[in-house]
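Appendix B, Record 12. Input sequence as logged:
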Amino acid sequence: MRISCVIPTRNRPEMTCRAIASVMAQDIPVSEIIVVDDGSTDHTAALVAARFPGVRLLHRSGLGPGLARNAGVAEACGEVVMFLDSDDVWLEGHVARLVRTMARGFPVAYGVTRNCDQVGGGEFCLPEPGMALEGHCLAALSRWCFLVPSAMAVEKGACVAVGGFGSGELGEDWSFFIRLAQRFPFGFCGEEPITLRYLHHGSLCNGANSERLETLLASVSCALAETGAAAENLVRFQALAEWTRQQGDWQTIQQWYISLKQEELI
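Logged structural output:
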């Protein structure tokens, strides 16, 4: 099995190198690492090229994380693609556990992400303990997004078949997962975290103002509509958008999520 790792980045030189190093430390090597430099204005690309000459470096400009990932997938030689955001790292055994899960017949596999919240403090896991699902996950994803790109593997053909990630800075991954879940079963590789995610002041999940969140919800609603989701799901997202608009802003997506849970909206 040939595996391609796709890392989108912009103006994150040291973080990107840390991410690449975590891929190279895996006990099962990937076939290629593709870094998509999405319009960096600093020395990110130069540092990657100097430290990791074997990495394939693509240059794009202002695509955003989702479309940058798609650009990497288009160039990938592997039958399987694994993603890694530039501010995340793969933990030991990441590749091996996802590969074993796909070997059970799943075109999509995912694992637990341990989130280190450097903005609000503390740690949390996604999915939460005991909340992971395997098989048909569309209904669950219609309520909340319980995985991240950095903790998943997908057959390249499946990724292309659903049109890849969407545009924008928020919700492009959730919409992608919904489109995947409509057509393919998901495999879960166990409760032990396989990815470490840093939520920092430069994270796209920081600065969760109501306008950005409404855009996220609109993107996910469109994806649900494409799947032929039940009308009550679409109405629920409209209600979430209205409640979010009335409540104002949050500092992070996680804080918004906690508020939604407290209101029993998810």
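The domain at 3-199 is CATH 3.90.550.10 (Spore Coat Polysaccharide Biosynthesis Protein SpsA; Chain A).
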